[in-house]
Write a sequence for this structure.
């Protein structure tokens, strides 16, 4: 899967978890910039991404994610 | 006065001398505040730094574990062990009768833990210099009661050359003025009333407690946010930017939203260093995992305030509210959807404020006293105590002004809000705050409430 395709999948997951359909993500998007993406939803988003791509993030991976770009790069790395 | 002198000398000195000067000023500030207890701050700096250095050489994670444990034990020794061992009756020959809580220990210990964990989690290859780390740990504007600084935000600012910038000093002064307004006009004028009520619970009745709880909620907010504004403003005059600590919390639409706006430096610290690891650990348990993590997180926030059952209850109630909101998110969204947006916002603000007013009393009185208050509100509502009407009116004037300012500025930082207004508005702000402070401000309370935590 290309990075762009992974980004679209991540975007779908984020929209699904936050019960929205209009969130657009870019590499530079951070959780703070997305309404509703808080600590309570963050781990669910991470867990769904792991499940969707059949990968597993370590705790160090999770705490070092600064933005969506980092998350996408991590998925690419783990695939 | 201290800030003025320090700021003046700071900008006169060459850049390479400023850090050392600031460090000496920080330690002098602490020594003047609490004399030889400075040794606990210095030892905390040296032990944390030393253990991090050992980790960098050996990559033995027990060094990290030891550093975190040291900070927790230091806090426990002063804050929790005496209460756990002896309750409220500490024996006269006990060491704990001779010790008091080192000022700022809850804040600089958390900063130390944050530094250590950031280094470990980011797999750092080197750490800051001892001098920079010492400055981070002891920075006087926020040493006593926060905001809790993050190493990744603060340390890079130390080495940047800070030429004198008029705008920094003006921004800082504007924020300090606002902090003084909240503290002196609102918080200090409310404290005689709340003290009279909560120090004499047996003498008062239901309606009095309802008013006193609302008053104490406003008091603790303006006292603590006032201090935070003074701390952040003081740092700004020296060219340092500290984290925002309050973001119009009483305009929150839910308890979850409230805790993103109240004591942000603590709630975000606990979110990043407690809640996130717990959520990761329990992520396989779905919603139950989120709830467990939330309860533990808020229990820690509760007992951070102190080792007593009222603080435990405070934390558990917050955890319960958050859990309720997690479980009922879809239901509540449907219900709020039936209301016009403006009305829904007002109603949610009122509900959140009411909820927090009921909880915050637990930061003021013991659990049994809180039970007594609840009982009197429920079964003995009559009778009302006004106290000094004049002070309440002064506080009311200040509260109305503060509420209006917060309503108009919204989430925008106050310094940005003031800076972007026309000059006539800015001068109205300076003169208005100053005149109100001089005319109706009160110096009756010497300390800030959060110094005790």
């Amino acid at each position: 899967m290309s990075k762009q395709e992974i980004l679209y999948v991540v975007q779908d997951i984020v929209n699904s978890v936050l019960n929205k359909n209009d969130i657009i993500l870019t590499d530079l998007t951070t959780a703070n910039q997305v309404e509703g993406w808080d600590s309570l939803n963050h781990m669910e988003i991470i867990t769904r991404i792991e499940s969707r791509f059949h990968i597993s993030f370590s705790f160090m991976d999770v705490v070092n994610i600064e933005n969506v770009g980092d998350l996408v790069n991590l998925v690419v790395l783990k695939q | 006065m201290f800030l003025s002198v320090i700021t003046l000398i700071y900008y006169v000195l060459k850049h390479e001398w400023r850090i050392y000067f600031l460090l000496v000023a920080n330690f002098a500030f602490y020594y003047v505040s609490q004399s030889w207890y400075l040794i606990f701050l210095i030892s905390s700096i040296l032990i944390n730094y030393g253990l991090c250095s050992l980790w960098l050489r050996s990559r033995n994670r027990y060094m990290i574990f030891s550093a975190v444990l040291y900070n927790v034990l230091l806090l426990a020794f002063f804050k929790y062990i005496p209460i756990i061992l002896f309750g409220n009756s500490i024996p006269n020959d006990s060491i704990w009768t001779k010790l008091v809580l080192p000022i700022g220990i809850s804040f600089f210990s958390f900063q130390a833990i944050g530094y250590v964990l950031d280094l470990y989690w980011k797999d750092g290859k080197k750490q800051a210099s001892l001098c920079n780390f010492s400055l981070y740990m002891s920075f006087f504007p926020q040493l006593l009661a926060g905001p809790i600084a993050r190493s990744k935000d603060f340390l890079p600012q130390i080495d940047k050359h800070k030429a004198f910038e008029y705008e920094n000093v003006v921004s800082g002064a504007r924020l300090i003025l606002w902090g003084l307004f909240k503290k002196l006009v609102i918080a200090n004028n409310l404290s005689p009333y709340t003290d009279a009520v909560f120090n004499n619970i047996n003498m008062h009745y239901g309606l009095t407690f309802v008013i006193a709880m609302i008053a104490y909620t406003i008091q603790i907010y303006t006292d603590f946010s006032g201090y935070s504004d003074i701390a952040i403003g003081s740092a700004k005059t020296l060219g340092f930017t500290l984290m925002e600590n309050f973001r119009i919390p009483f305009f929150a639409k839910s308890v979850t939203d409230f805790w993103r706006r109240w004591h942000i430096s603590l709630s975000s610290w606990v979110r990043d260093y407690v809640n996130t690891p717990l959520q990761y650990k329990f992520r396989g348990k779905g919603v139950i995992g989120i709830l467990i993590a939330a309860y533990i997180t808020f229990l820690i926030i509760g007992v951070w305030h102190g080792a007593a059952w009222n603080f435990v209850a405070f934390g558990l109630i917050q955890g319960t509210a958050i859990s309720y909101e997690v479980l009922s998110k879809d239901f509540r969204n449907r219900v709020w959807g039936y209301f016009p947006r403006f009305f829904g916002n007002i109603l949610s603000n009122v509900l959140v404020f009411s909820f927090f007013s009921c909880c915050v009393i637990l930061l003021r009185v013991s659990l049994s006293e809180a039970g007594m208050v609840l009982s009197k509100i429920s079964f003995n509502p009559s009778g009302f105590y006004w106290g000094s009407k004049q002070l309440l009116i002064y506080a009311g004037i200040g509260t109305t002004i503060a509420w209006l300012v917060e309503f108009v500025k919204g989430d925008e930082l106050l310094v940005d809000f003031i800076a972007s207004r026309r000059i006539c508005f800015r001068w109205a702000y300076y003169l208005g705050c100053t005149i109100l402070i001089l005319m109706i401000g009160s110096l009756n309370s010497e300390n800030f409430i959060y110094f005790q935590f």
Observations:
- Chain B touches chain A at residues 121-123, 256, 260, 271-272, 275-277, 279-280, 283, 289-290, 294, 322, 326, 330, 333 (CB under 8 Å).
